[in-house]
Amino acid sequence: MTWPGTGCRRGEALGLRWNGVDLDGATAVIGQQVTVVGNRIVLKELPKTKRGHVIRLDSGTVAMLRAHRKTQNEERILVGPGFVDQGLLFCRPDGSAYHPDRFSLEFKRNQGYFNRAHPAEPLPELTLHGLRHTWATLALQAGIDIKIVIERLNHSSTHITREIYTYVTPPMQSDAAERVALLFQG
């Protein structure tokens, strides 16, 4: 499971905790990440250059998280006293943190399962980080102000966002041509 509606990084999604999520207020605090140090899974605060921040959640993500919390609580009961309660949104059935690379492999495997079950409507080959790129590109194509995209991605300047996460697509070129032509026509 990943969180494509947020634009967050893989480690940030894996580091999300339930106590930082307000489903009624539709917000989440991205303040830590799961990473690997010396073959050990570590939860750590975001570096100063990528400070923690609050993001707003769309209604679909909120609904998905409500269902996910219910499933996670059912797993907690099944595991019993062996459940490692770290308060993580996305964790293994026993509550422990996912290894980030293992999480990516499971994401890719689930894409394959879906595509075999839905050959007429396959998902495009995409990595977890590709979801971040896609979120940024779609947001900019939808006309979302770049300052909002920068804040959502937790970048420190527009340079990174403009150089890495935005792609000029043919529809964007066509839209620009039409909009500027309308300005000339008055």
Description:
- The chain has helices spanning 10-14, 59-79, 100-117, 128-141, 146-153, 158-165, 170-185; strands at residues 21-22, 27-30, 32-37, 40-45, 53-56.
- With 186 residues, it is mostly helical.
- It has two domains: 1-123, Intergrase catalytic core (hpI Integrase, Chain A), CATH 1.10.443; 127-186, no CATH class.
- It has a three-stranded antiparallel sheet with strand order 1-2-5, with no helix packed on it.
- It starts with 9 loop residues before the first helix and ends with a helix.
What string, H for helix and E for strand, traces the elements in order? HEEEEEHHHHHH
**Residue share in helix:** 40-55%
The low-pLDDT segments are none
Give the biggest sheet. Answer: 3 strands, antiparallel
Mean pLDDT: 86
Briefly note the CATH topology name of the largest domain.
Answer: hpI Integrase, Chain A
**Number of β-strand runs:** 5
Secondary structure class reads: mainly alpha
Number of helical segments? 7
CATH superfamily of the largest domain: Intergrase catalytic core
In CATH, what is the class of the largest domain? Mainly Alpha
Strand content: 5-15%
Identify the strand order in the major beta sheet. 1-2-5
Radius of gyration equals 19 Å
Q: How many structural units, i.e. domains?
A: 2
What distance separates the N and C termini?
49 Å
The CATH architecture designation of the largest domain is Orthogonal Bundle
**How would you sum up the global shape?**
globular
